[in-house]
From TrEMBL:
<feature type="compositionally biased region" description="Basic residues">
    <location>
        <begin position="104"/>
        <end position="120"/>
    </location>
</feature>
<feature type="domain" description="Signal recognition particle SRP54 subunit M-domain">
    <location>
        <begin position="5"/>
        <end position="71"/>
    </location>
</feature>
<dbReference type="InterPro" id="IPR022941">
    <property type="entry name" value="SRP54"/>
</dbReference>
<dbReference type="InterPro" id="IPR036891">
    <property type="entry name" value="Signal_recog_part_SRP54_M_sf"/>
</dbReference>
<dbReference type="InterPro" id="IPR004125">
    <property type="entry name" value="Signal_recog_particle_SRP54_M"/>
</dbReference>
<feature type="region of interest" description="Disordered">
    <location>
        <begin position="101"/>
        <end position="120"/>
    </location>
</feature>
<dbReference type="GO" id="GO:0008312">
    <property type="term" value="F:7S RNA binding"/>
</dbReference>
<dbReference type="GO" id="GO:0006614">
    <property type="term" value="P:SRP-dependent cotranslational protein targeting to membrane"/>
</dbReference>
<protein>
    <submittedName>
        <fullName>Signal recognition particle protein</fullName>
    </submittedName>
</protein>
<dbReference type="GO" id="GO:0003924">
    <property type="term" value="F:GTPase activity"/>
</dbReference>
<dbReference type="GO" id="GO:0048500">
    <property type="term" value="C:signal recognition particle"/>
</dbReference>
<dbReference type="GO" id="GO:0005525">
    <property type="term" value="F:GTP binding"/>
</dbReference>
<dbReference type="Pfam" id="PF02978">
    <property type="entry name" value="SRP_SPB"/>
</dbReference>
Length: 120
């Protein structure tokens, strides 16, 4: 992550990673592949299996869904409103400067792709 300039300002506590890993390892393969299966009783089972509170399992699932939404928007080139989404999950935020550089980079790449497609 340190090689990515956009991720330089993200602070992740190793304990948080261990907790997340415990939660994920307590899920079945089907639950990992399709988080929509996670009803309240499954979430309680995962919490018990990982030794974490249900609130933490819910928080992780919420963060996952936010990241999924953000990645979908980014893949479509839609960066509007991204700054607000990034602060709720992982401890730390992408700085506005890093976000702006990502936007500029995406615009440059988009222009290159358009030129390349015109040549064909």
């Amino acid at each position: 992550m340190a090689n990515n300039p956009a991720m330089q300002n993200v602070n992740v506590d190793p304990k948080d990673l261990e907790h997340t890993k415990a939660i994920v390892y307590s899920m079945t393969k089907a639950e990992r592949e399709n988080p929509d299966l996670l009803n309240p009783s499954r979430r309680r089972r995962i919490a018990a299996g990982s030794g974490r509170p249900v609130v933490e399992v819910n928080r992780m699932i919420k963060q996952f869904n936010q990241m999924k939404k953000m990645m979908n928007q980014m893949s479509k080139g839609n960066f509007n409103g991204m700054e607000g989404m990034l602060g709720n999950g992982i401890k730390g935020k992408l700085s506005k400067m890093a976000m702006n550089s990502m936007i500029k980079k995406n615009k440059k790449n988009k222009k290159k792709r358009m030129k390349k497609n015109k040549r064909r």
